[in-house]
Write a structure and sequence with these properties.
Blueprint (H helix, E strand, L loop, with lengths): L1 H18 L1 E6 L4 H5 L3 E3 L1 H10 L4 E5 L2 H10 L4 E3 L8 H4 L3 H9 L5 E5 L4 H4 L4 E3 L4 H6 L7 E4 L2 H11 L4 E3 L12 H10 L4 E4 L5 H4 L4 E2 L2 H10 L4 E5 L4 H8 L4 E4 L20 H10 L8 H16 L2
Helix pairs in contact: 1-14, 3-4, 4-15, 12-13
Bound molecules: 1,3-dihydroxyacetonephosphate (13P) and iron/sulfur cluster (SF4).
Length: 312
């Protein structure tokens, strides 16, 4: 098994050199996949990187909307996704046609969409955001300007609470991983580890975010765990992040928060785990599946991402 994965890693490195390809990976992929990445990051860092990457091929080790975002930003590059079935329950909760009808009900509203959306929804969006910059993006919009925020209702209401804005309409979508964490079990863990800090992703429900010592994006959580003096953390986000946490801070301990049903493995994103070393080899060898989209949709979507990247 070890030998097999070593030979897959070797083959991936050969293919990357031969084809001038780079691998961008999200922190929620498996540790083996993270190990072959040229760049590992959260959604925001990956979007920024995809824009400037110097290669002929970008292989996106992550979910479909992330690879689409890379293609929107780098249209002249070949963008590959090892498993096109790797979707996202949050992106799927917001169908572009339904969203267009929703938008039509709120004339005069500016649309802020989380990057976890399809290219069709991005094309209907004025400015994208990720969990790293959602607050700055919303604050960059004049207070009197009404906003539609899509698709994550938990991130939307968290930002609404932080900004005190009462002119935000929320799309009713959610991520199947972050919605499933059990408040009861988190409180039990805290009772057993009274010194531990609770770190929570803003895609979680408000009752869970309310008990957090820190709420932030994947990258924000990683940084917080480094600068905090605490030695123990209860981690309320997708469990793939634990690999990077343990690598960066080996002296600290990280306890994954359990979902309501601990037998379901729901604190793992099944889509992110669809990317495997085997699928990366196949994808690089065949240079497929490739992300393709209509140029008019790409251009409309590009504007919303460029507007996001411009917000400091
Ligand atoms: P971030 O990478 O912005 O933390 O988002 C988490 C996520 O759910 C990615 O799909
Ligand atoms: Fe989508 Fe949730 Fe998976 Fe992120 S963790 S890719 S939001 S399903």
């Amino acid at each position: 098994m070890v030998d097999n994965s070593q030979s897959l890693v070797k083959r991936i490195e050969e293919l990357k050199r031969e084809k001038n390809a780079v691998i961008l990976a999200h922190y929620y992929t498996t540790p083996e996949v993270q190990g072959v990445a040229d760049f590992l990051g959260d959604s925001l860092a990956l979007s920024v990187k995809a824009k400037d990457v110097d290669a002929d091929i970008i292989l996106f080790a992550g979910v479909h909307f992330m690879a689409e975002t890379a293609k929107v930003l780098s249209p002249d590059k070949k963008v590959l996704i090892p498993n096109p079935e790797a979707g996202c329950s949050l992106a799927e909760s917001c169908d572009a046609a339904e969203f267009a009808a929703f938008k039509a009900k709120y004339p005069g509203h500016m649309v802020v969409s989380y990057v976890n959306t399809t290219v069709g929804v991005k094309a209907l969006t004025d400015i994208c955001c990720t969990s790293s910059n959602a607050l700055q993006v919303v604050e960059s919009i004049p207070a009197e300007q009404p906003i539609i925020f899509a698709p994550d209702r938990n991130l939307g209401s968290y930002i609404q609470k932080l900004t005190g804005r009462d002119n935000m309409v929320l799309w009713d979508g959610a991520c199947h991983v972050h919605e499933e964490f059990s408040l009861e079990k988190i409180l039990e863990l805290r009772a057993a580890h009274p010194q531990a800090k609770i770190v929570v992703h803003p895609e979680c429900k408000a009752v869970v975010a309310a008990v957090a010592d820190y709420v932030g994006s994947t990258a924000g959580i990683l940084e917080y765990c480094g600068r905090s003096e605490a030695q123990e953390f209860i981690v309320v986000t997708e469990a793939g992040i634990l690999a990077e946490m343990r690598k960066r801070y080996p002296q600290k301990s990280f306890i994954p928060a359990p979902p309501v049903d601990s037998t379901c493995g729901c604190n793992e994103c099944r889509y992110m785990k669809m990317v495997t070393l085997e699928s990366i080899v196949r994808c690089l060898e065949s240079e497929s599946p490739e992300i393709v989209m209509e140029e008019s949709v790409r251009r409309a979507a590009e504007r919303s991402i460029i507007n996001m990247v411009a917000v400091k």
